[in-house]
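[job 4471] stage=fold_predict status=RUNNING
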Amino acid sequence: MSDSGKRRLRLSDKFYWYSPGLDLNDVGYLRRADLMANEVWVGWAELSPKGAFRSYCSSSSGRTSGTSGASGRGRGGQVLN
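[job 4471] inference complete, writing structure tokens
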């Protein structure tokens, strides 16, 4: 799900789930077969000129991940200007 276009506030949320019972990995297509991850991204963009800047934007994102057995949990994030 995402929202952008000509709006100032931009949002995106993604959820990935690779089931451990799915056997696609037997032929080598998936590197990891047991994964659940959620990514959230929020951004703000000024597209009209202000002062010395023609346009500018700022964004922040976060990610959490784990397995179906609740092991291997990970978190991360970043802020961009």
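[job 4471] summary: Residues 2-80 form one domain.
[job 4471] exit 0
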